[in-house]
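Ticket #4471: structure output looks truncated?

Reporter: J.K.
Steps to reproduce: submitted the chain below (331 residues) through the standard prediction queue, then opened the result file.
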Amino acid sequence: MAEIVQELVTAFGNYYIKGQNNMNRLVKKLMQGSETLNLPGIRHINSTETVYQTANVETTEVIQGYQHGFTPKGDTEFHPNTIILRPMKVDKQLKPDVCWDNWLGFLSADNKHPKDWPFVRYVMEELVGAQIENDREMKLAYTGQYQAPTEGTAGDAVNAMDGFKAILTAAAAADHVYPIHKVADIGVLNASDIFDQVEAFEDAIPGFLKKQNMYIFMAPEMATAYFRKLRALGFYDVSSASGLSDYVDKTKHLVQGAPCMTGSTDIWATTPGNILHLTKRSSKNFDMQAFHRDVDVMCDWFEGLGFTDNDLVFASTNTVGWKTDGSAVEE
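Returned output as attached by the reporter:
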């Protein structure tokens, strides 16, 4: 933070200009919000636990032709489903005095402790909160892969918890007691074949789910390529843009470009209500502690992702790295 302020001082001079319009001259970098986890239908649960446990229940067929003797038929199984909420935090040190007697002086305040200066409020309300949402979308939601932190070293955001990629890969493994569905022969998504690939992926989803709301997740650029392919193939016959549909033909399955998947060639799908976003505590409750002229800002919470029912999750074999027979997909 001190280095950034020094750049301003060097550029604008070490002087103080008072005025309300100065705030309007602080132009924030545009950041990606937490878009994917806020899609309609995704279930957000504030948990009191750090391990969220459910069970998937299934039974085999029970109907049989009549005979007088008792011939029991049908098994019932309970599959445990555990979602781990990982602890994560924000530790940030602010040095409010760096804006004293320079162009950023309007963010200071006379006769107040530095922790009460507008500088601190501005950084927390306008910058840190937005960065948390950006990190959650671009580092955690899809590409997150949990790694235990190294003592005394600030870890990377991507290692704070498992995102959907890691969860899908683990749930597709051959030794998983209740695996997700692996869709073979889709190949790596590419703009040239995207239409046929989405159609083939859709064909692997059972008919009874065609009228259920589902998200088919892919990178935003892949979703754009899909709709461009529809246009190129002449599938659009509408009078205006309002007539365009984001759904796969004759289904309620929405092709959803997910910012968290930017740059990937993966494709996976599930019903909205099957996705759980679990939190314990809030990532918006900050504790500020003043030490001399510095202000330490802290926040800690737990967070995790998962599915209620793996039987409602579909992913291409290239996405999860496992073939339908459980062997590894060759790179």
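Triage note (M.O.): checked the attachment and the full token line is present. The CA atoms of residues 235 and 307 lie 34 Å apart.
Status: closed, working as intended.
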